[in-house]
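Continuing the batch. This is chain 6 of the set; chains 1 through 5 are on the previous pages. Same settings as before, nothing changed between runs. Recording input and output for traceability.
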Amino acid sequence: MLVKKKTEVYALSQHISMSAHKARRVIDQIRGRSYEETLMILELMPYRACYPIFKLVYSAAANASSNMDSNEANLVISKAEVNEGTKVKRLKPRARGRSYPIKKPTCHITIVMKDISLDEYEETDFLWSKKPKWKNKDTAIAYHDMYSNGGAWDKK
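Output for chain 6:
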């Protein structure tokens, strides 16, 4: 039987103080590229959004090498998305004692990396690789008839 193996790792960064639109401009350039190519692109791009994304890609690669023992040369960015976060609200003083609301946007960035050297499916000999706990006769749950509880009502 074929069992699906874990070949993807992700890194998530929340509440980054920049617009989601500005972060998407950089994320669209690196989606689907290899890890090493992505690092070169992010180092050379002139946008402010590159540094947090660079740190996030580096973190996802560290997760892949730690959790799956994969080589960095085999990593590809399979999914990258930017979602809007909460807006930090501030008040700016204006003329004649009034105040003007300032909304500073935040965003959440998710990077998913896939190891292309690993197979997605693993073949096992039988249905369950581990023996289930309920197969042991010592720990099996004994089901009783609900009307015979061994109490005073069973006596004649």
